[in-house]
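Minutes, methods subgroup
Present: GH (chair), OT, SY

1. OT presented the first of two proteins processed in the latest run. Sequence and structure tokens recorded below as shown on screen.
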Amino acid sequence: MRRILVIGSCGQIGTELVPALREKYGNDNVIATGRRTPPPKILKEGGPFIYLDALEIDALKKVLYEYEIDTIFHMASILSATGEKMPQTAWNININGLINVLETSRSYKIKNVIWPSSIAAFGPTTPRDNTPNTTILEPTTMYGITKVAGELLAEYYYKKYGLDTRSMRLPGIISSETLPGGGTTDYAVEIFYEAIKKKQYTCFLKEDTYLPMMYMPDCNKCMIDLLEADNLKLKRRVYNVTGISFSAGEIAAEIKKHIPEFQIDYEPDFRQEIADSWPKSIDDSLAREEWNWDPSYDLASMTKDMIEKLSKRL
């Protein structure tokens, strides 16, 4: 049985990834951590939770030793929109935290390190339609720069030290449980809350802005499937993955099928330039071939599920 440490558990992905891991590997075998944010009830009461800052390497070493960790999910990160407001902080947390995780993992002979990259690693020079796994990586945001550097570091530690690093380039993540935390794709979550509560939403992207997305249950599945994949079948350390590609107008139209009175306006801000530098759709055929990646949700089923879950809560 694995002993798993999830760094950055209180974020949008970690909050739902931890319960999924605990269901599969056992509550006591998945240690959730947060840097400062008080943990939600599901993390604190569902199993071990501790405070940990990945920038403090001695504290990280202590946790790995005392909890006999053999697998790490390193989720702590400053996202794209927030990263543009404080780029130096984004570099410090995203890169120096990752280096600490990789270096301590090498020293303590950790079996697997799962670290999510992002479609932010791409840039305006990248082919935007059906973006291939191997392509030009010239991002224009600090977040994207840290993801490219992180991909190279993960590859380096695998080739030089044999540390089994695995990474997926996540698209925008849509969750019914946790609000997003400063990303360019946040609108795809906010729109549901506002549609249910106010029947109106002002989108910070243009109506025809297409971006790749993924529903959170598929995101959890993606991470666990890649962790469990046979390393002999993996031909790379970083994989494109995607679930659904849609425009802001298309998701609004899908929501109107369930909430006919819903109205949307479009007032693009600085995040529009970021979105315009990212792919419209992703080629994830290598993930499908090498570790059988297969998402379950399309736009219609995701929208229906989101509205049902949020309506009960809100």
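2. SY then presented the second protein from the same run.
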Amino acid sequence: MALALITGAGVRLGRATTLALAEAGYDLVLHANRSLAGLSEVRDAAETLGRAIHTVQADLSTSEGVENVAATVRSVATSLDVIVHNAGIFERVAYEAITREQYRTMQAINLEAPFFLTQALLPLLRAAHAPSIIHLTDIGGERAVSRYAHYGVSKAGLLMLTRQLAVELAPHIRVNGISPGTVAFPEDYTEEQRASLLRRVPAGREGTPEDVARAVIFLVRDAPYVTGHVIALDGGRSAQL
């Protein structure tokens, strides 16, 4: 049976991706740090689809947390077909106010965790038939947004990691990214903020977590000749100035 690991699986994009992969026939290792209630709910939902589910709680800002996730996967399988690096943090802070601790935590979770978690699981990926890695990047990794300097830097690094690993781990392991734009607004956005963003989206609507999940399924199951590519899942927003 094919096995997938999803980080940040308890809510939003991670939850939708978990359910999509379960419906596609994957057994799952699901990670969360704080969203443990959501992790429990999505585990139960995936189990009703007949999948074998394993969960792990870990702080991916630490090397111990990354190793804890890797150790959990190694304890339940000898091969790994899919990793979806979805876990991440998003923080609005003026550049001059960003502390070294905030910067380091942002890079640790958004960039270093995918880097070293994949590294730790390479033997299991290489043992799989057609392994695939997906990075959840962001339009903010390509276009500067005021007050998100440390976030933008982390996602720009993840874009480069996608391309680097697609080259270095080829031909057996494929590595791609999905770059959401206006998908699943933060809960604290006002109606005015939402309307302002949607005016810049040619598709005329907010994206959904399910839009992202469908792209994950396409990349891991239906696109065997696609690697080193980042899908802009943004309703056309990046196509215009």
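Chair's summary of item 2: The first helix runs from residue 12 to 23.
Next meeting: continue with the remaining queue.
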